[in-house]
Design brief:
This protein has 189 residues and is an alpha+beta fold. It has three helices and twelve strands, in the order ββββββββαβββαβα. The strands form three sheets. Strands 5, 6, 7, 8, 9, 10, 11 and 12 form an eight-stranded mixed β-sheet that branches. The protein has a two-stranded antiparallel sheet with strand order 1-2.
Amino acid sequence: MSRRRGRREYGPRVLVGGVAHRVLGAQMAAVRDGRVLIQLRPWPPGWEMPGGHCQPDEDPLRCAVRETEEETGYVIDVIGLAGVYSWKGWRSGGDAVYVGEIVGGRPHRSVESLRTRFVGTTDLPRTIFPWIPQRIADALAAHAGAPPVHRVQVVGIRHVLFFGVQWLATVLDWVRRFRQPRHQRSTRR
């Protein structure tokens, strides 16, 4: 383990374009009909792809498969790597994002996944974590044959505040909708 800026570096490395990048976590972009599976996490609340932190000495690919099955119930056949996403700002470390297809299992809710849905790049929920849209676009490109990418994703106060405003707007929309007479309510969620 080496030191950088006073922090110990740990975690497995994932190769992208011949360069090894350290990751602490892994996510799975489960693709079905050109759409990616996302889940609503309870805390911090927001939509993102299934995944989590790698166990000590755990291969990130195995982590992504394990976490997806634990959180959503789906069994995944991994197609490849979409990319490695390094953090800059308030978060540190990085994530590997893999692309796969659902080959079995039964969907279920879990403590880490309150709801699931499939989305494309144009129908993302308002309360999706700010770094996920780029990952979804890269995963769909990788599913179509594009090579893996390495991206640095910045998370700063602007991102956190904007995300908080999106949640506030969602709650206000919900309150407005339920204050309307029942026959005027939109069925869209």
